[in-house]
TrEMBL record:
<comment type="similarity">
    <text>Belongs to the NadC/ModD family.</text>
</comment>
<dbReference type="InterPro" id="IPR027277">
    <property type="entry name" value="NadC/ModD"/>
</dbReference>
<dbReference type="InterPro" id="IPR004393">
    <property type="entry name" value="NadC"/>
</dbReference>
<dbReference type="InterPro" id="IPR037128">
    <property type="entry name" value="Quinolinate_PRibosylTase_N_sf"/>
</dbReference>
<dbReference type="Pfam" id="PF01729">
    <property type="entry name" value="QRPTase_C"/>
</dbReference>
<dbReference type="GO" id="GO:0034213">
    <property type="term" value="P:quinolinate catabolic process"/>
</dbReference>
<protein>
    <recommendedName>
        <fullName>Probable nicotinate-nucleotide pyrophosphorylase [carboxylating]</fullName>
        <ecNumber>2.4.2.19</ecNumber>
    </recommendedName>
</protein>
<keyword id="KW-0662">Pyridine nucleotide biosynthesis</keyword>
<comment type="pathway">
    <text>Cofactor biosynthesis; NAD(+) biosynthesis; nicotinate D-ribonucleotide from quinolinate: step 1/1.</text>
</comment>
<keyword id="KW-0808">Transferase</keyword>
<comment type="subunit">
    <text>Hexamer formed by 3 homodimers.</text>
</comment>
<dbReference type="InterPro" id="IPR022412">
    <property type="entry name" value="Quinolinate_PRibosylTrfase_N"/>
</dbReference>
<dbReference type="GO" id="GO:0005737">
    <property type="term" value="C:cytoplasm"/>
</dbReference>
<dbReference type="InterPro" id="IPR002638">
    <property type="entry name" value="Quinolinate_PRibosylTrfase_C"/>
</dbReference>
<keyword id="KW-0328">Glycosyltransferase</keyword>
<dbReference type="GO" id="GO:0009435">
    <property type="term" value="P:NAD+ biosynthetic process"/>
</dbReference>
<dbReference type="GO" id="GO:0004514">
    <property type="term" value="F:nicotinate-nucleotide diphosphorylase (carboxylating) activity"/>
</dbReference>
Length: 288
């Protein structure tokens, strides 16, 4: 049985700050915020509130906070909800008070990241809810926005999901093209075992039950059952009999996920959570 989802821990600021800084520099360009600098006098201060404009699950408020603090270290940012919280339309997520110039200059960067990550968390939570009552966990993939992988995988955790491997170096995943080049599942696994260290988990993708039967004669930790029907997945789970983790992948959404989870698989991996989940609409409104 899989372990329960652990409590959500915030990412270290050391990891988040360079991403937010790079996003601000991209927006500031070569001359800074020429609109705000022309309209807003130096020394002017304001208070703004971050408000959810639709229901969802929040993630990325630390990104918004840093977008303002990097521009005005004296900025006061007060959270009203934690990442991972479900919110209704109109919910105040945070208040921020300080330099008006910094607030307006950092607004888009902060909202871009908070809206993006909250959208991922919300989509994940929807899938988690859709398969409630089954053993399966929803997990993400490496189909992430370049430069944002750590943040987007954090957002999946905020939505109640779990993370697949973070990169090419933390686990082995033998896919169809590896098998094609090696000539067989057995040969691919043999080559991996001759190279990978004893701490490295090995997962193998299979497209058919015949490939799965071959894999079961080998020593792997997990099997990725790619684009199989719920009926075929159930047979695959029966064949595995608990000897390795089973992961389903392909064409998974809120409508298809319940039947896939009911097959008895351990994991359901979903690429679109991090490559095309819609944002959660969050506004930054002037409050004085």
């Amino acid at each position: 049985m899989l372990a329960e989802t652990p409590a959500l821990d915030p990412l270290p600021e050391l990891m988040v700050e360079p991403i937010v800084r790079a996003a601000l520099l991209e927006d500031l360009g070569r001359a800074g915020d020429i609109t705000t600098d022309a309209v807003v006098p130096p020394g002017h201060t304001s208070r703004l509130v971050l408000t959810a404009r639709q229901a969802g699950v929040v993630a990325g408020l630390d990104c918004a906070r840093l977008a303002f603090l990097l521009l005005d270290p004296g900025m006061r940012f007060t959270r009203h909800v934690a990442d991972g919280a479900a919110v209704a339309p109109g919910a105040v997520l945070a208040e921020v008070e300080g330099s008006s110039r910094a607030l307006l200059t950092g607004e888009r960067t902060g909202l871009n990241l908070a809206c993006r990550l909250s959208g991922i968390a919300s989509a994940t939570a929807g899938l988690v809810q859709a398969i409630a009552g089954n053993r399966a966990q929803i997990v993400c993939t490496r189909k992430t926005t370049p430069g944002l992988r750590a943040l987007e995988k954090y957002a999946v955790r905020a939505g109640g999901g779990a993370n697949h491997r973070f990169g090419l170096d933390d686990a082995v995943l033998v896919k169809d093209n590896h098998v094609a080049i090696a000539g067989s599942v057995a040969e691919a696994v043999k080559r991996v075992k001759a190279r990978a260290g004893h701490m490295v988990k090995i997962e193998v993708e299979v497209d058919t039950l015949a490939q799965l039967e071959e894999l079961l004669t080998l020593d792997a930790d997990a099997v990725l059952l790619d684009n199989m029907t719920p009926e075929t997945l159930a047979e695959a789970v029966r064949m595995v009999g608990g000897r390795m983790l089973t992961e389903a992948s392909g064409r998974i959404n809120r409508e298809t996920a319940p039947a896939i989870a009911a097959s008895g698989v351990d994991l359901i991996s979903v690429g679109w959570l991090t490559h095309s989940a819609p944002i959660l609409d969050i506004g930054l409104d002037w409050a004085g």
